[in-house]
Design brief:
By secondary structure, the protein is an alpha/beta fold. It has 4 helices and 7 strands, in the order βαβαββαβαββ. A hairpin with a 5-residue loop joins strand 6 and strand 7. The structure holds adenosine-5'-diphosphate (ADP) and magnesium ion (MG).
């Protein structure tokens, strides 16, 4: 049986054993990013998406505390290259909400991380370049699998 008619996208899988380790993986990914890049971060609640973004943002020079945006869909941080952190968990339908919401966070001069991108992926792709996709899954206890492509 022919499984792949084209080479599958390259996936690197890393095992994280601590939250600090997931932050370090975020920092590693951050080093490969350039202005205008978007990183989609997927995974269940509590998987470590925000932890990953925190490590990445710190590596990009963000000095303020990075936590989940609560009253907005995102947060912008000043840094040598500005960093945006968007969390669409509560946004079931971005178009219905406000089609311009994302524009405040994504753009050619910013590096953006998006948790729960789901249906917004097309819109995200219109505003900026999706550079990486990260999937984090629970592996029992504090273990997590971090897949990068
Ligand atoms: N290996 C690990 N990687 C990431 N987070 C971990 C890990 N082990 C334990 N944790 C904990 O799991 C929680 C992950 O929370 P968070 O990053 O907010 O997840 P999400 O954004 O995916 O909902 C944090 O409390 C973190 O300390
Ligand atoms: Mg989160």
């Amino acid at each position: 049986m022919l499984l792949y008619s084209f080479p599958p996208p390259m996936v690197r899988s890393k095992e994280s054993r601590t939250a600090a380790h997931t932050e370090a993986i975020g920092a590693e990914v951050a080093e490969t990013l350039v202005p205008g890049d978007v990183v989609l971060v997927e995974g269940e609640l509590g998987a470590g998406k925000t932890t990953f973004v925190r490590g990445a943002a710190r590596a990009l020079g963000v000095t303020s505390t990075v936590s989940s945006p609560t009253f907005t869909i995102g947060q912008r941080y000043e840094a040598p290259v500005p960093v945006s952190h968007v969390d669409l968990f509560r946004v079931a339908d971005l178009e219905a909400e406000d089609p311009d919401l994302l524009e405040a966070y994504l753009g050619p001069d910013t590096i953006t991380f998006v948790e729960w991108p789901r249906d917004a992926q097309e819109e995200i792709g219109r505003l900026a370049r999706v550079a990486r996709r990260v999937r984090i899954s629970h592996g029992g206890g504090d273990r997590r699998r971090v897949e990068l492509d």
